[in-house]
Amino acid sequence: MPWEREDLQRRTLAGRVPGDRPRGRATGAPRPGAAQQVGSAPRPLSPAGVLQLQRVVGNGATAGLVTGDHGVTVQRDYSPEEIAAITRLQALVRARRVRAQVRVRQEAPGIVGVRVRNSDPRALGDISGTPLAAVRQHLRDDTEYNQLRVLGGATQGAVVGPGTGEGGKLAGALATGLPQGTAVINGGYFAHTEKILSEENWSGPRVDEQTQDATTEDPEVAKYLAYVKADEKSNQLSPVGSTGRPVGETSHRSDPLPIPSEYAEHYGQVNVGGRVGLSSGPVLTHQGVPRHFPDDDRFAYRLRLGDDVLDNPRNRQAGALTHVGDPNARAAVSTQGRDVLMHTVVDPRMRPGDGVTMAQWQTMTMMGAGGHVAGRPPLSTLNLDGGGSVYMGITGPGGVRVVAKGQRPSEKVERPVGNIIASLPTVGAQEQPVPVTADDDRPAEGSAVVGQ
């Protein structure tokens, strides 16, 4: 097909400015017998260009090139070899773009790592229809999801933390002494400050046993009364007085803080070797069934009362789940058959409001683990401490190689954690297995166990 004169005259060529008349022969059919080569005629180049190829029909091939800021269209006949070359080039460009956003590789023997980023919106179409695309669509700009799948790790795990009476410790320090090639992630909630409140010495009634002091049909008034009640309860609680104490039962110390009564039904536990390793919450998925988070004041960090937006009084209590509805950096641990999966979502810049809500996190961990795929073992997932406590890595000769961290870059000192979860793949394992197990039965009222 001949080049179109009008289109050629409007193109921007190397060394000329738009509007210059092209030199030499620029239109008309090729001379008889002349070979038509790819690139022999000038082509428009533009960062906004989009290359579209049509299917090859019969023995010939037709291609359409749509490019340029002015919507210039040039069409010509391409040989099958030319189509194949252009297709390969497109595939290479797409593959490079996808690899920058989605990476799956072996991080250590028996540990498969997945990283999903959201810094190039063009790559979303290249992975559309895949589970990782469902993960990526929940990520905010420049945030990333990381996963470590520890093959056979459910039979060789541990919870490591400070002893009774000790404060929080650095995750890397807690991992000291673990075998090389062990995946680690931060654990559950703990008292990160002496001033945080607890129900430990609270003599008041349980929340579900309290009676309404007043009744009203006005929803705004009812919301205000609920806020007053929560504030009154918060004022009755006492500071814990020391740091490091975990919220809920653990295997490494005997001085845990009680799980807040308003959230007990949403907490779960990790069992290691038949014992409770740690407690955390909320349970995201149990035996393949996603858990529901009520849409009420207990799960909101800030409350709107009329024209005012106030901090939730529950924020001051250790182990409160008021962060459920707000975007935050997150961490979670899953078991799926014999495998252990560790998940994080962080923004390397840790800007305020970045991260994901708990509902988004529930979906991301499910899709990232393939828990929705028929025929796979049921998935159980427990949310862990988030924000600046997020820490995930793999032990090696020089210490822990950090895969993800929730700490702000401006913070010069690493944040301590209450404990860590460690899992060693059974591939090449030398030590006696310590199983991470779970039962369908709940060990205590209002709790759930994550496991096989």
UniProtKB/TrEMBL annotation:
**Highest taxon above the source species:** Bacteria
Which sequence ranges are marked TM in the entry? none
**What are the Phosphodiester glycosidase domain coordinates in residue numbering?**
229-422
Q: Which InterPro entries match?
A: NAGPA (IPR018711)
Q: Which UniProt keywords apply?
A: Glycosidase, Hydrolase
* Annotated spans, Disordered: 1-46, 235-255, 423-452
Q: Basic and acidic residues compositional bias: what residue ranges?
A: 1-10
Q: Where is the composition biased (Low complexity)?
A: 25-35
Q: Name one GO molecular function term.
A: hydrolase activity, acting on glycosyl bonds
Q: Which PROSITE patterns match?
A: IQ
Protein's recorded name? Phosphodiester glycosidase family protein
